[in-house]
Amino acid sequence: MIGAVPESPLAPESAPESESAPESESAPESESGTPRPALLAVSDLHVGFARNRELVAELWPRTSRDWLIVAGDVGEFAADIEWALGLLSERFARVIWVPGNHELWTHRRETLPLRGVDRYQYLIELCRRLGVSTPEDPYPVWDGDGGPVTIVPMFLLYDYTFLPDGVTSRQEALERAHAAGIVATDETILHPDPFPSRQAWCQDRLARTLARLADLPAGVKTVLVNHYPLVREPTRVLRYPVYAPWCGTVHTADWPTRFNAAAVVYGHLHIPRTIWHEGVRHEEVSLGYPREWTRRSAPPVIPRQILPDPAER
Ligand SMILES: [Fe+2]
Ligand SMILES: [Fe+2]
User: Fold this and answer.
1) What does the pLDDT look like over 261-272, one tens digit per residue?
2) The whole model's pTM is what?
């Protein structure tokens, strides 16, 4: 269904081991033995692939009060996105979505002829119809174990400032990427309209998001959610480092500490793992393409538990 999706230049040949072990698939239990509600997260479901679609069809909450963060790259087509988010929103007590680059593509086989901001707005309205929280809605507060924590779904895009080592400008980064044959499909079908460029759109998103973050009460704990990592660290293990410019922006580097993040949730790299950076837990919660997750020794862990912190159980 999405044959035009290129091979992933993201995940390394073998995914690095998590710096902390992934949580078990069983729900955390209270002293009475009943499962406790959890804040869970997943991304990069890429439901255009039949095998991924099957996994999503089997994705159920562990308790009736579980929340699910969906951190982008559900799929390329509005109908697929609606199917997946509709299904999940019927099952989980709350679903929180942020767009990935794939949702924002205007694919040649997409029946919806919208580009850029218009497409994003369409998806926001779609989510609202389904009762799914988006980056344009009030921030939900998780009051379960590990809370209270304000969940901050963000749409920030990227601005080509994650430069590969030895590269000093966006121009040079793009030249290297072209020379290596590793150029994001975004370049041709992720339209920034009405912005003149994806960098300009990113700049606008950064400003809007920062204004909302600045309005949070002092000291409030957050879970920051974005399709792209907020810090450069996770991109150090890309199979093709020339792909880094399409993976985030340096302008969010201090957000996890500045906005008191209990955890940062991201996807996009297709390298699911937990890392700690400057005292903050960063969780890549991606599923990825079947050709990626089927060759790993262990089955994919979806969703991953964010709160309560699985390490504190
Ligand atoms: Fe993805
Ligand atoms: Fe992505």
Assistant:
1) 999 999 999 999
2) 0.93
